[in-house]
Design a protein that fits this description.
Rossmann fold, five-stranded parallel beta sheet, 7 helices, 5 strands
């Protein structure tokens, strides 16, 4: 009898990084359970991208969780605050931008942890990156290590010793170019993904926000056209 694949919960937003992580988890032989969290973000078009990626990767288990962080605001992604456009790439690394959503990754990983414990999984996958990470504090190795410790202290499964929760962040130390190269090696179609913070009325990427800028620069550095649809430049 074939050994049953280990279950893993993967946070799948539909963006470039999370899609690559989902492909990595699938290639590693995990039974992927994809969690897409709709937290009131203005780039809700990612939801459709997450569904496309899950289907393309043959992920059988995908759920959507709704939690409206617009009630707290304080971010250009969840409040009526202008999304920065056309910034110098160096600025991405020098300050925490207004697109930071307070405690977002803590909230998302907590939801992933809850589902993992419910289904008997001990592996969590997240697409955070500390190289091209736009200055977000919850994309650092220190944060992931702290959350992993919390997961094993604050769950019944962890306390009873049923297993040890592990937070996998396979993209953590990769550049955006390296991430794309790896995804292409895994057969990922980046035309299915969406990374823009402020898409246009028809769901097309703006091409000028921090996320778009990092993505476009990486594809350009690789000499590969970005297959995602963008708004025409004025």
């Amino acid at each position: 009898m074939a050994e049953q694949a280990k279950k893993a919960v993967v946070l799948l937003s539909g963006g470039l990084d999370s899609a690559t992580v989902a492909a990595e988890a699938s290639r590693a032989g995990f039974d992927v359970h994809a969690l897409t969290v709709l937290y009131g973000q203005r780039h809700l078009v990612e939801r459709d991208a997450a569904q496309r990626v899950a289907q393309a990767l043959g992920i059988r288990h995908q759920i959507e969780q709704f939690i409206d962080l617009r009630a707290f605001g304080a971010s250009a992604l969840t409040a009526d605050i202008e999304v920065p456009k056309g910034r110098d790439p160096q600025e991405h690394r020098e300050e925490i931008p207004i697109t930071y959503v307070p405690a977002r990754n803590t909230v998302l990983l907590s939801l992933a942890l809850a589902w993992a414990e419910a289904i008997g999984a001990f592996d969590l996958f997240v697409g955070v990156n500390c190289v091209d990470y736009s200055g977000y504090p919850d994309c650092r190795p220190e944060f992931l290590g702290a959350f992993e410790s919390l997961a094993n202290l604050a769950t019944r499964a962890g306390v009873e010793g049923r297993g040890r929760f592990i937070v996998h962040a396979p993209l953590l130390h990769l550049t955006k170019e390296q991430i794309i190269t790896r995804g292409l090696e895994l057969g990922l179609d980046y035309g299915l993904t969406h990374s823009c913070y402020d898409p246009g009325p028809h769901g097309l990427a703006c091409g000028r926000c921090d996320s778009c800028s990092l993505r476009l620069a990486a594809f350009a550095a690789l000499g590969i056209p970005d297959p995602a649809p963008y708004e025409p430049l004025a």
